[in-house]
Amino acid sequence: MRQLIAILTMLTLVVVAGCARTPPRGPGGAVHVGGTVPELGDTAPHAWIGGHPYNHQVHGVDVSRWQGDLDWARMRQAGVSFAFIKSTEGGDHSDPMFRRYWAETRAAGIPRGAYHYYYFCRTGREQAEWFIRNVPRERGALPPVIDLEWTASRTCPRRPPSAEVQREAAEFMDILHRHYGQRPIIYTTVDFYRDSALRNWREEFWLRSVAGHPNVVYPGQNWSFWQYTGTGTAPGARGNIDLNAFAGNRTQWAQWLARRSQR
Questions:
Q1: In contact, 137 and 108? CB cutoff 8 Å
Q2: Do 209 and 228 contact (CB within 8 A), yes or no?
Q3: H-helix or E-strand spanning residue 42
């Protein structure tokens, strides 16, 4: 009996380990994603809840000034299929690396779009006008993105009610839609999504979820992009970089680009 119990215990441990395992570590301590993008990795791997991102065929990055010099051609060769670049925040700040990254990604042939970090101390119209002043309308560019999350700003600590958030953000999106010809994508976090009742919006979403699959963390919510880590690694980038997965396969990615790229 003791021998049988020992065997059953061992089998249970093997099953649990298999369900919770993360990919093996590569050079430098990073865990390689494997699958279709083996050169991408993560310096802080963990077991995933409800499914991992590594079996997705299309991966990309999002960047801001903090990434410094980037070798976009090398990243493209490594399997980076898209990039979202920070352009603006609030109504008076622009990212000093935006124009450089915008030109470099185009030269490297990486589809890219610009994102705006939204503040709650200015109107949606003011912020839309600031975004338009800084981001060119360009054939082939991805739709603009509105980054909706609670800010940690000392100059703008407001947390308005969901009705105000949705009203002002909708105006921002309507203005950008008219100008760029594509409806903006909403990037958001778990707490903001919950607090602002974004589940009621019929918009396209880019969801942050660094511990579990979006289908578990945001039940019932459709999404196109999943930001799955802020501690990612990619050839051509120094230090950590945000990694993202597209919801569909390569064929669906090509179809999405044909439908959602600016004209």
A1: no
A2: yes
A3: strand 41-42
Question: What DSSP designation does 263 have?
Answer: -
Q: Are 240 and 67 in contact (CB under 8 A)?
A: no
Rounded CA separation 70/183 (Å): 29
Q: Report strand pairing: 225-233 vs 205-208.
A: parallel
What pLDDT, in 10s, does the model give residues 105-158? 999 999 999 999 999 999 999 999 999 999 999 999 999 999 999 998 888 999
Q: Environment class of residue 261 by beta-carbon count within 10 Å: exposed (0-12), middle (13-18) or buried (19+)?
A: middle
pTM score, two decimals? 0.89
What whole-number distance in Å separates Cα of residue 122 and Cα of residue 158? 10
**Computed over its alpha carbons, how large is the radius of gyration of the chain?**
20
User: Rounded to whole angstroms, how far apart are CA atoms 80 and 40?
Assistant: 9
Spell out the domains of the chain, with CATH numbers in brackets: 26-260 (3.20.20.80)
Helix axes 162-180, 124-134, angle to 10 degrees: 30
